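Need the bound structure for S-adenosylmethionine, inputs here:
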Amino acid sequence: MRLRNKPWAQDKIDQHPQFVIPNPETLKGKWQEVFEKQQPLQIEIGSGKGRFITEMAKAHPEINYIGIELSKSVLVAALDRVIEANLPNVKLLNVNANELETFFEKKEVDRIYLNFSDPWPKSRHEKRRLTYKTYLKMYENILKSGGEIHFKTDNQGLFEYSLMSFSAYGLLLKYISLDLHTSHFEGNIMTEYEQKFSEKGNRIYRCEVQFQ
Ligand code: SAM
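Answer from helper R.:
Posting the output first, comments after.
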């Protein structure tokens, strides 16, 4: 995601600790205490400008959501949405997903969303893809038994790679759409990238996979 560096982003993040949780490692195993209601916890990795996680939180008050975003300059756009929505069931973390197990206890999370993850097309960058096997191992650890990953992308290469990676890992491929917007899938919430790329005519791929 190309965005201007925003030197004020850290200050803005610091001013809203009720929405962008500081020191998240201290909450490992205790995320239910952060929310008003104890209910299933779903996380989005690489939540970008936050439309998906905020709209999901509006549509599903019975779920707690955490959006994880590495870039401060991007996260502040999500923070604006979360401030505006002022919902009790959505929080943001400004951390790197490669440290997920520092922040979440084993079996603490009910579902993981990956939306339009960076494709890292060069094979020497395979390990950086959020569907590479070392990430899958982390997801398996923090997810409850039978936990799912829901993945969307417009990048055919990343989608095909990810299906192979999921399958090689032993995940159950529960649902696959090669054209989400003409499929019968109901309740889709568009991400910022999804809107942009589908308006350009790109097909959107989506799958749901489950650890067994
Ligand atoms: N999901 C959003 C959407 O669909 O509009 C944003 C997609 S953008 C291509 C990918 C986002 O993932 C970027 O904002 C990037 O900063 C974030 N990201 C990439 N690697 C990450 C990581 N290891 N941990 C957390 N966020 C990451």
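Comments: The beta strands are 41-45, 64-68, 90-93, 109-115, 143-153, 172-177, 205-210. The longest strand covers residues 143-153.
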